Amino acid sequence: MARGKGRKQRGTKARQPGRSRVPGGRRRKARRPAATASSRRPRLWWTGLDDEALLDLRFRDLGLVLEKSPLAPALRRLDQELERRGFLFRPHFWLAEEWFCPDGVPGVAIPFYLAHPRLARLERRMMHEVEGGNARWMARILRHETGHALDNAYRLRRRKRWRVAFGPASRPYPRSYTPRTTSRNYVMHLGHWYAQSHPTEDFAETFAVWLAPNSTWRSDYLAWHALRKLRYVDELMQEIRGEPPPVRSRAVIEPLTGNRRSLRQHYRDKLAADDRSDARRYDSRLLRVFGLRYENPGQQPAATFIRQVRPQLHRLLLRRSQLHPYLVHHVLRMVIRRARELDLVVVGSLRVTQRELFALLERIVFHFVRRGRERYTL
């Protein structure tokens, strides 16, 4: 402890906190710390509402502003990625109910729940995950959607070589699709083998892999048919990146500002369209490893436990299966989400539970490979 701590110096007055002397006997106020981004952000009146009250609000009443949201850093990073690649083109962004890029519009709609932490918590409660809810996931989706915007801005789908590489964009968009989980004709980027759902998604996924900083696509996809698509995208981007886009519309489609729907209506429709049949197939096996919360109150949530041991499980599964990391990541994400939906908890010792969980995950991984196909709703 420093000597004399807590004592006044003899012959001087104790200084008032927050003030200092300057020559001439004047006093000046101490400088206040600079405001952080979070302190500058205005507090929205609905942040203190419980979930039920929040669900009754209309989208237009949320008062969200994209530029003042937590999305701003991610959008700046995307802008830097495009600048490093030498692109003149920049997509524009707005807030809407979901992720989408409208046909013919070189811009991207971003879901409302990413614009405020309170809305992200509601999304997790309702849907058991937040799509784009971490920096890595957000960056991947933004690159993918930028691929769609770029396609619209330069009308790339009209080019003959584009159609040869990816297929006709005029192909009807399916309500669901059944990907080949071991196919090497497509890149692996977003979940559910999304590149296989439609030619435009195939292009957007291929572009996203190409755009990623320090991307090693030449070695990652060596001996894959998808490498031809990546080489074509590389050649195409070299051609157009310094050219102004022919389509420069700044239209916004279905923005929140004019949306009179309530959040409750939104989630009712979203839950009705959510197909979880792929995950429910493994419910009985999950219940052999974990217990139900209402039967075992006070125990650690299974989803939390799986996330904690996820790095070890990921490494072990890759070593044992010798499969692409994409498949292992998909299975782990699916199991974590289903554990949240079923409200499962850890009931045995952590060591035994981890061993049983690994055996279950290994079985699911190889089941995916044997089946070769899973059905997903768009």
In DSSP terms, counting alpha (H) and pi (I) runs of 4 or more, how many helices? 15
How much strand?
Answer: 5-15%
* Arithmetic mean of pLDDT: 84
Radius of gyration, taken over Cα atoms and rounded to an integer in Å: 26 Å
Q: How much helicity do the residues have?
A: 40-55%
Class by SSE composition: mainly alpha
Q: Which strand order does the major sheet show?
A: 1-2
Order of helices and strands: EEHHHEEHHHEHHHHHHEHHEHE
**What would you call the quaternary organization?**
single chain
Low-confidence stretches: 1-24
Number of domains: 2
Number of strands: 8
Q: Please outline the major beta sheet.
A: 2 strands, antiparallel
Anisotropy-based shape: globular
Report, as a whole number of angstroms, the end-to-end distance. 65 Å
Would you give an account of this structure?
The chain has 378 residues and is mostly helical. The protein folds into two domains: 47-256, no CATH class; 276-377, no CATH class. The protein contains 15 helices and eight strands. The chain has helices at 37-40, 51-55, 72-84, 117-127, 135-154, 160-166, 199-211, 217-220, 226-240, 263-273, 277-280, 283-289, 302-321, 325-342, 350-371; strands at 19-21, 27-29, 92-96, 107-111, 176-177, 291-292, 344-345, 376-377. The strands form four sheets. It has a two-stranded antiparallel ribbon with strand order 1-2. A two-stranded parallel sheet has the order 3-4. The protein has a two-stranded antiparallel ribbon with strand order 5-8. Strand 1 and strand 2 (27-29) form a beta hairpin. Helix 14 packs across helix 15. The radius of gyration is 26 Å and the shape is globular. 27% of the residues are buried.
